[in-house]
Specification:
nine-stranded mixed β-sheet; Rossmann fold; three-stranded mixed β-sheet; about 200 residues; alpha/beta; 6 helices
Amino acid sequence: MRVALFDYGAGNLHSLKKALEAGGAAVSVTPSWGEALSLDALVLPGVGSFGAAVDSLGSKAENVRVALEAGLPTLGICLGMQLLFEGSEEGEGRGIGLLAGSVVLLPTPIVPQMGWNDVATGADPLFAGSRDLIAYYANSYVCAPEDPEVVIARTEYQGHTFPAAVRRGLTWGIQFHPEKSSGPGLRIIRNFLDMVRYGPEGGEE
């Protein structure tokens, strides 16, 4: 199984690459959308800023959206989740636009949110074996989808509840960092890879 880990050119992807490899994937770290969209699955990492990630899209945003709509299994992490939406208060430019809605600054006294927090998960197979989840966050911005039905997990921070995870088809976005969230986070990565191998119900309970 070949997985593309897209490189926006903005940070260290080592821990995420190791987590994917531990789940049995052959990982290609690439800045090429042509290569990224040609492999078995795509991972959009959580390093960098929205503006820089949009710059990396260039003229390929439509190609990426079409590939995701056609069923390319995709996991967006933190910034990668935010890139799935139409735009962000963090920077100019348009995201992939797979999900209607925007990305907004956390309306809380302390920003960014840094550290561990509870995640209230739904029944999605991405969370098989990780339902009682405490995950690691490093975010100043959160997603505000127009359709609440895409939300598959939520987190509360300083009195504000926001989407911790979203899904449309075979594309998942998670606001926290599974590669930094110990065993339960690594299980989420394995569940995603199982769904790439075996289909959308590939995760085990």
